Amino acid sequence: MRARSFTRHEPAFVAALAFATVAAAVVLGRPGLETVVGCGGGNDPWPSQTARHWVTYADHVLVASPVSEEETNLREYEKGAVLHETDRLVAFRTDSLLWSADRPAHALGRDFRLTAPGWATYRATGNRAKLTTADAPRLEPGHTYLLALRWDSGEWTPLGEGAAVPFDDHVVGRGEWCGRVLSEQDVARGERFSRRDDRSLEETLLGRGEAAVSRELGRAEGR
Fold this sequence. Notes:
The chain is mainly beta. 15% of the residues lie in helices and 39% in strands. The protein has helices at 51-57, 184-194, 201-204, 210-220; strands at residues 4-5, 14-18, 23-28, 60-76, 82-100, 111-122, 128-132, 145-152, 155-158, 164-166, 175-177, 180-182.
């Protein structure tokens, strides 16, 4: 499908992670103490790493920017360091639609919403910390993302951690990743550390723009 553009109006808890450039303590988005490489706990409902995965399992591939968010899905805990957790319902503006399936399960409009990791509130202090997913952006307002979305159970969702890519300034790998603002070089270091055999679309097109993404999707479709 040809690209379309839209106008801009339209509970123990911490996994401590250190990269050479990316030094961070990241709250784990699920009860229990785990230490994982990257951030959060893994969740890949569909294959999501390569362009072939995207054109096989997604309904749409797009560039989008979060414009607002609200807390949802409150979960309270009687014991443990975490008093409660929430998700975030994030509203996005569709900046450009790069690809769509021949018969998508649902049309994509100029704006849409999806559920993203939210917040953990500590029992002892009342302080809050970000929840994240594994090796992926948290999807925060003020940034731009490359997304491969699928309509599932009445809502939009990325295919998995490989289907949400930082895309600030329309550059693959630049922007928010695991709740932190990074350069594409920093993201590459974190991704290589966490997936040494990484052949993902993000790794392949690191530092490149929309045209390169569209070409890669076309090749995956045999065009």
